[in-house]
Design goal:
The complex is a heterodimer. Chain A contains 18 helices and 19 strands. Chain A has a domain of 244 residues: DD-peptidase/beta-lactamase superfamily (Beta-lactamase, 3-Layer(aba) Sandwich). In chain A, the strands form six sheets. Chain A has a six-stranded mixed β-sheet, covered by helices on one side. In chain A, strands 8-7-19-18-17 form a five-stranded antiparallel β-sheet, with helices on both faces. A two-stranded antiparallel ribbon of chain A has the order 4-5. Chain A starts with a helix and ends with a helix. Chain A is an alpha+beta fold. In chain A, α8 runs antiparallel to α18. By secondary structure, chain B is mostly helical. In chain B, a hairpin with a 2-residue loop joins β1 and β2. The relative contact order of chain B is 0.14. In chain B, the strands form two sheets. A three-stranded antiparallel β-sheet of chain B has the order 1-2-3, covered by helices on one side. A two-stranded antiparallel sheet of chain B has the order 4-5. Helices cover 72% and strands 4% of the residues of chain B. Chain B has one domain. Chain B is globular, with a radius of gyration of 22 Å. Classes of the chains: A alpha+beta, B mainly alpha.
Chain lengths: 470, 425
Amino acid sequence: MDKPIRRLFWLFVLLFVALVVQLTYVQVFDASDLKAKPTNTRAVEQEMKVERGVIVSADGVELAVNREEGQYYLREYPQRGLTSPWLGYNSLRYGRAGAERVYNEELSGKSGLLGITGYWDELIGKTHRGADLKLTVNVALQKVAAEALGERKGAVVALDPRTGAVLAMVSYPRYDPNGLIDPNTMGTVWSEINSDPDAPLLNRAAQGRYPPGSVFKTIVAAAALDTGVVTPDSRFVDTGSVTAGGFVVDNYGDSVYGEHDFTKAFASSINTTFAKVGVELGADVLAKYAADFGFGKDSPWPLGGATSVFPDAGGMDKAHTAQASYGQGQVLASPLQIALAVAAVANQGRIMKPYLVAQVLDYHKKVLDETDPSVWLQPISSRTADTLKDLMVEAVANGTGTRAALSGVQVAGKTGTAEVADDEPHAWFAGFAPAQDPQVVVAVLVENAGAGGSVAAPIARQVISAALGL
Amino acid sequence: MSLRNRELVFLIPALVVTTLGFALVYTQKSAELTLTSLTYGALFLALFVIAHLGVRLLASRADCYLLPITALLSTMGLVVLYRLNEDLALKQAMWLVAGLAAFLLVLAFVRNLNMLCKYRYVIGGLGLLLLLLTAVLGREVNGARLWVDLGPIGFQPGELAKVFLVVFFAAYLVDMREVLTVSTRRVLGVPLPPFRYLAPLLIIWGLSLALMVFVKDLGTSLLFFGALLALLYVATGRFFYVLVGLVLFVVGATALYFLFPHVQLRVDIWLDPWADPSNRGYQIVQSLFALAEGGLFGQGLGEGYLILPSGRTIIPYLETDFVFSAIGEELGLVGAVGIILLYLIFTYRGFRVAVSTRDDFSRLLAAGLTSIFALQAFLIIGGVIKLIPLTGITLPFVSYGGSSILANFILLALLLRTSAKTGEA
């Protein structure tokens, strides 16, 4: 009778081994698939229980805080729409966007950064808390920029050219992220902002792409000066128009400038001269410099941005090259890209990587991580940058950008009036100040609003003035 | 070391688990710090030390591992219950007291197993009566009619019937062993014992089918059927009976699958719970989610996502049928496999007892009790981890449930009594 009992025992051993095998499969090998199932709401529920890190501006204003509701934490954005272009949202139903999405690991405390502190707190049974973020954005400046732009579709970017720290980034129209948090309103708000033809979810500063118009001349001038094809004193004659490959180039407002030097051509934004210089440089050289300034490259913006476009040089004839030389044709740029290009001029030829998060802190306010400024690109030599800076100073002092000038501080800049089919042109301005010790770069774009000098330059003036504390 | 001292030493891990477990759940619930942890620890200590002393007194030569394993399983269950629902944990603690009392009573009054053998028909009749009671008076919960209300207490007669029927099977097979082994005629070349000896087998088969039909209790009928097959095999040593039994099972199960929607439903859910994850497949899908969340080392006691904000458990019947999922989430694969190993050791000790007995009845009784115990653990664990279709039965000693605790302590007492006769070290 012993043999059947032994066999019976082995049968049970087999059955129990089958249990262990299946259990191992479910708990280890299949676990990540099971966690990713759409019906599995555990992850969301778990994260809702975590007290998410607070996001604070450079000037100490709370931008994203938590409201306790039962055992859950809901986000609140005290600055409402003002910060929405980059702060984004953290919504139960619609997921995350902006900094809330990109820095979720830190904010929800999943990041390895919390390291020892996290484990220790777990051991002593403290509730789990995410890390706080201190941003580079200055809310006071953000407000000034938003008010200066007003209710006009467009974008304003202000950054520190020495570090790449973004000081303000405004986009209009905006949305109030608080509407996506409240379970009672989120449905209507979500469909409203998604069906709005003006696309308030789009951060025009980093994700919008526009023909840059004459602000692109900054890059063409950089190429011409850097290669030695022109000097500031090179002489040109304008007759009001020039033909390139069968295409007739006119000046803005049909102006005729006669004999002038390159400084004047830049300051007064003479299209005919830039068309000549561009054709002389050739499409290949223009394309190379555009690429060196960041066109065609993945956006360095940590939250993701649009890649600015310079057309393929191989497919460009003289007419295309001439148009590209004053930022028309197929050239497209985001306001952030334009700000970065100008930052190269302000920072001795180097473009610093733009960033939004200055510090990651635990709730004892201990700094866990800090962004070290780093160089993104170096498109031109510091000598070229200095020469170009003089041209930009002249453009604000005596050229198209006079409305960006401030008393007591020398402002350098370039305007742009980008023509678009069947509508008013886009108004651009990009510049920096103080010219001899640049602390802030500002790029302004206003959609279909007219001339850059009259529309965009005054906005930039207010932002620069506020940034320098004037 | 003497047997009983060894038993006492092996009770220590269980004491550590209880006190530590309660302390952990406590820290987690830190808001309401009371003396519960110590109370439970002391209660446990008192209970199992009394049980241990009882064994010392009443069955001093009994197996020394079964009681500590039981202690470990039941206190693990208590800790998890305390984490899920303090009221239920208190009730379960009271049931543990009742279970240990029943354990001591059985040890005290069943001094001689021959007595059980002698009253086999009474015991078998009682078992059947309990089942009939369920079929007639039963209240339907979760699609199965398992509960009988005795005043304020709900009772699951099926659990007790389980023990009674195993005793009856064992006694019955002692009688029938000879005739079943000696085949007298062949049908189509297959040796068959006389029909009148085969009849009980067919009756049991019919009964388990009837149980499935009337009580809708898949789990219990599978248990009876499995235990009977195991005993038939142990008694006769003939695989042929197992084969006949399995054929009967397959025939019966197939018929039931096509005849009864609730059986079909269980199987369909098992095959593809993802077809309807938020309704019919909800329970098993949530169980799998819980296990996946637990991973290798678990979320930690009290850290799992088991209770909804409304206070209900996210998996229905978490405290009873699905308690293993809670363990899997909070203690991880490591803890869950630990539980499985405890059942395996229990099974091993049970069969050791069976092998070392000196008479047929004890041997069959020990083998039968061990088989039904191991089978129950396998069926419910396999069900909640989707290895086999889900059958609503309890996880012995761990799940919440008075009837289950009582029945399993009686089962343990009988096993210890069987082993006491053998004097095996």
